[in-house]
Design goal:
This protein is an alpha+beta fold and 71 residues long. The protein is built from 3 helices and 5 strands. It has a 3-stranded antiparallel sheet. The chain has a two-stranded antiparallel sheet with strand order 2-3. Strand 2 and strand 3 form a beta hairpin. The longest helix has 12 residues. It is globular and about 30 Å long. 11% of the residues are buried.
């Protein structure tokens, strides 16, 4: 399921960063691993993000092209 790879981000436990966007969990994990001390704002452009109302086909394309994830 595509939605298993995308999530909303939180500033604080109950405070969403942006309720209208979802972010690729694989991109986030990869950046955290490579650059653990880097702030989110400096790497935001390197994370797959989509409007929460986006079609899942766009997200599937991202997963395949960037992470080679297939179903």
């Amino acid at each position: 399921l595509v939605w298993n790879y995308f999530e909303q981000l939180y500033k604080e436990p109950n405070e969403l960063l942006d309720k209208e966007r979802v972010y690729c969990r694989l991109c986030l994990d990869r950046l955290k691993e490579k650059h653990p001390a880097t702030s989110f704002s400096s790497v935001r452009s390197r994370i797959g993000d989509y409007k929460s109302t986006s079609r899942t086909s766009n997200m599937k394309n991202h997963l395949l092209a960037v992470h080679q994830v297939t179903y």
